[in-house]
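BUG-148 | component: ligand-complex export | severity: low

The export step for protoporphyrin IX containing FE jobs runs without errors, but we want the raw record kept on the ticket for reference. Input record follows.
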Amino acid sequence: MNTPLSAQTIETIKATAPALQSHGLAITTRMYERLFVDPEIKRLFDQAAQISGEQPKRLAAAILAFAQNVDRLERIEGAVEKICERHVTTQVRPEHYDAVAAALLPAIKDVLGEAATEPVLKAWGEAYWYLAGIMIEREKRLYGQAAG
Ligand code: HEM
């Protein structure tokens, strides 16, 4: 089950949204460098989208939209649904979310440097898993429909 985010976490996420806006693309580009060390995960991605810089941009935009709407996620429901559909088409599995967490959080640290304090990284870790929980549930249902 997905535990709701604390008021403190929500505040930290919203406070760091401007930093993500300026560094979002650098963070996601760095994240993919870390993520693609694993060839199984690299294969899941359309390399054309990656090379053109499209995929990091889409992920940066999604993360930013999430940060800005973290206390009113109903506003990004449609966008999340589209991402989940794309994930199911490309065979993203629940266990892949661990690999993305392990790449994203250090990438935030790499790019933001000292601004990525412990409380900031902790808040982002919690927020990531909150969103991941919603997406994993939705993807499970979509896989179920595809099978049935
Ligand atoms: C909270 C976590 C995640 C977010 C916010 C996110 C966001 C996105 C977005 C915005 C897109 C583009 C959708 C579109 O084409 O319109 C996408 C596509 C994709 N994502 Fe994720 N994603 C997440 C987790 C993951 C994980 C865990 C994996 C697996 C390693 C993954 C693999 C992919 C793949 C393979 C695509 C399709 C790429 C392509 O079309 O070239 N994502 N994701």
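Assignee comment: Attached the raw record above. The mean pLDDT is 90.
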